[in-house]
Amino acid sequence: MLELKLVKESLFLNVLEAILDLVAVASVSCSSTGLKLQAMDAKGVAFISLLIPAKEFQFYHCDKDLSMGIAIGDMVEAIRSADKDGTITIKASDENFRNITVSIESPECNETTSFSLLLVTLKRFCIPELQGLLKKYDACVQMPSVDFMRICKYLSNVDGDVDISTIDKGIRFFALGKCGCLNVKYMQPEKATDIDISVQAPVSLTLDLKYMNSFAKVSALSNQVKLCLSKGQPLVVQCKIGQKTKSRIIYLLAPKIKG
Amino acid sequence: ASEQVLLQKFFEHM
Questions:
Q1: Identity of the residue in A45, A133, A256 whose CB atom sits nearest the CB atom of B7
Q2: What band does A62 get if pLDDT is binned at 50, 70 and 90?
């Protein structure tokens, strides 16, 4: 049996809200240690992995490993209408593993709304832990998420793809659209800061800007974001969620293949 | 489609 409890204004729900423009259904695995969500976008070019340890929930109990296909779009839609200070309880039982029950209790505890959400059949991903991958990239950029968001916003002014390339002591974002082009150089400052750019080998990736904007939305839930690039490999965007938590989200985005 | 293949191959090699 699985039971987890969270307040409506929790980071978990904010993250679900933020990934909805990429995915509507997700594979959710729960164990005694926490919850893992994995999802592929409809085009099959972007992958999301979200990990939230059990202790991040107000209450968490899972006595048997479970894997479920959840229409997170429907779940978030139902929860949105609840009072912002309400408490949400999600339950799945072994006896009836065709749906989960989501209950929303008002802050005064005088009103409880419950709805049953049918589980969906979904390919279960068997992706190993992505964390180790981050050491093997040609270039990694640790930057404040506000910088990442601002750069993505600039690039959005030019409707097209974005090229991310390593340059001397930094990286370059370049977008070419119908109305012109936009170039952002992001350099390693001389003094120690919260920016860390490490380049092992030159690399350049062309990426769909629409996805970058979606990633930037979630990184707003964290102070820092890390981009990892390698030739011919998916871009990795990773951020911790919240300040003092071990929750994290990792995105993979396949680069465009020229020619 | 080529991006999909790239991502699939990436997972296969993990």
A1: A45
A2: very high
* Shortest CA distance from A234: residue in chain B: B7
Q: What are phi and psi of A107, to 5 degrees?
A: -55, -30
- The confidence band for A97, taking pLDDT boundaries of 50, 70 and 90, is confident
| B8 min Cα distance to partner chain A (Å) | 9
DSSP string, A173-211: EEEEETTEEEEEEEE--SS--S-EEEESS--EEEEEHHH
Long-range contacts of A116-122 (CB under 8 A, 24+ apart): A117/A70, A117/A71, A117/A74, A117/A75, A117/A78, A118/A71, A119/A68, A119/A69, A119/A70, A120/A25, A120/A69, A120/A70, A120/A71, A121/A69, A122/A25, A122/A26, A122/A27, A122/A69
The predicted complex's ipTM stands at 0.85
Q: Which residues of A touch B4 (CB under 8 A)?
A: 43-45, 254
CB–CB contact A257 B11 (8 Å): no
- Tell me which residue of A247, A254, A196, A259 sits closest to A230, measured CA to CA: A254
